[in-house]
Design brief:
- The chain is mainly alpha-helical.
- The protein has one domain: Growth Hormone, Chain: A (Up-down Bundle).
- It is 72% helix and 0% strand.
- The protein contains 16 helices and no strands.
- Helix 6 runs antiparallel to helix 15 (366-395) and helix 13 packs antiparallel against helix 16 (399-418).
- The longest helix is centred in the middle third of the chain and has 31 residues, at 244-274.
- It is globular, with a radius of gyration of 21 Å.
């Protein structure tokens, strides 16, 4: 029974990604984008300050950064089959426990543990490792999809949580999501595998031993100069960590995540106070913004034709302009325009950095190198969520947050510009599973 798997008329990797999407949905219920959108229900019920809720969310992110390097190594060594179900099981227990929360220390404890477990196992490292292991020719598309799961789930969760919280309370809403997470555990065990070779398949469903120059979908030959079709070069973690480009990418990740998270986490209260939007309108802007991660599919297509590094540079300059635009917003129409553009740009930032890493270093150690990157990402997420609330409590305005985001984006542009592709390591034939 434990080795049973459903037969599919399509490549099995797509079914695995479907299960990954369900895991991301429940994990996003405790993510910063959702907590930022629903924080009003919590502090209206409890009287806790905005900075306190932001601190809980930020600390949870930082804790996930400490866990992530270990999860990355486990993902490379053992794969996702047991890691993802473990994530849904422990997350379910945490979410269910919110029903008993009546003090700030209880909220802190559950939120921190839930985020530390769920982010690397259900949203970040392990799902991306699954995408890289199961796909090669369609790798950028698969990474775009995994990057899309969190923001789209966030958009759904914000609206769903708001409706349920008004009817049955925020604690009971978390409890229902916890039950759903627990129920997902068994199907996760039955369906998810580490890599296609474990079930007699090859990445993308290709035939074993097929020449790399042949394109199954068109029958046409492919040039060896394409990064997706040339012999893939695998890097060990030691080799990766000795490159200058990896650490420049890590610092870039920290800066751009801190800038974008600070804006996203505080955008609802900012629009309510500065643009005089109603709670429903402000949440609607955030929901629109997160749902437009659907544009990630476009970035997957673009990255097959344009170096992800060049795309990232352009997007970060664009995001800097959007933060400047925030100072001028005084109407619902302008807020929705901002939300739409912000969603498209922010979605690109979330996926292009991992497309760039896969392009530079291959799949052999993808879990380990993204796990080591997670502390930088987590630090950006945590500081972004904490900084906005503190600035508001001290100054009564979010303008200091906006200035910080502008500076962070511009510095990120500089660091990424310096992160050229490093000299490659040894090639590994595509028919030999990585790590063997």
């Amino acid at each position: 029974m434990i080795n049973w798997r459903p037969k599919t008329p399509f490549f099995y990797g797509w079914l695995v990604l479907g299960m990954v999407a369900l895991g991301a949905f429940v994990a996003t219920s405790i993510a910063g984008v959702v907590l930022g959108g629903i924080q009003g229900f919590i502090f209206e019920d409890t009287g806790w300050s905005r900075s306190t809720i932001g601190l809980a969310a930020g600390t949870g992110v930082l804790a996930s950064g400490l866990v992530a390097p270990f999860v990355g190594r486990l993902a490379d060594r053992y794969g996702a089959r047991w890691l993802i179900p473990s994530g849904t099981f422990f997350l379910g227990i945490c979410l269910f426990s919110f029903i008993w929360v009546h003090s700030i220390w209880q909220f802190f404890l559950i939120a921190i543990v839930a985020r530390a477990i769920s982010q690397p196992l259900l949203i970040g490292i392990v799902p991306r490792t699954v995408a890289v292991n199961f796909f090669r020719r369609r790798r950028n598309l698969a990474l775009a999809l995994t990057g899309m799961f969190r923001p789209v789930s966030g958009a759904i969760n914000i609206q769903l949580f708001a409706l349920l919280a008004m009817a049955i309370g925020w604690r009971t809403t978390f409890q229902l999501l916890g039950i759903f997470s627990l129920l997902l555990t068994l199907p996760m065990i039955l369906i998810i595998r580490r890599q296609p070779e474990d079930i007699g398949l090859m990445p993308d469903g290709d035939v074993s031993g097929e020449p790399e120059s042949a394109d199954l979908s068109t029958g046409r030959s492919r040039t060896a100069s394409s990064p997706e079709t040339a012999a893939e070069y695998q890097w060990t973690p030691r080799e990766v960590f000795h490159t200058r480009s990896y650490w420049l990418i890590a610092v870039t990740t920290f800066l751009m995540v801190m800038a974008s998270t600070g804006i996203a986490f505080n955008i609802v209260p900012y629009f309510q106070e500065s643009a005089h939007l109603s709670s429903t309108q402000a949440v609607g802007v955030l929901s629109l913004s997160t749902s437009l991660a659907l544009a990630n599919l476009i970035w997957g297509y673009v990255s097959d034709r344009v170096n992800p590094r060049h795309s990232l540079l352009g997007v970060m300059i664009f995001m800097t302009g959007l933060v400047i635009f925030l100072f001028t917003i005084r109407s619902v129409y302008a807020a929705y325009v901002f939300g739409a553009l912000w969603g498209i740009g922010n979605g690109a930032l979330e996926v292009l950095i991992y497309m760039l890493l896969a392009r530079y270093f291959g799949r052999g150690s993808f879990g380990s190198i993204t796990g080591a990157l997670r502390p930088f990402e987590a630090a950006g997420l945590g500081l972004g969520q904490i900084f906005g609330g503190l600035v508001y409590d001290l100054t009564g305005s979010y303008h200091g947050l906006f200035y910080e985001s502008i500076v962070a984006y511009l510095l990120a542009v500089v660091f990424l510009f310096l992160a050229a592709q490093p000299a490659r390591a040894r090639p590994v034939p595509p028919e030999i599973p990585a790590g063997t």
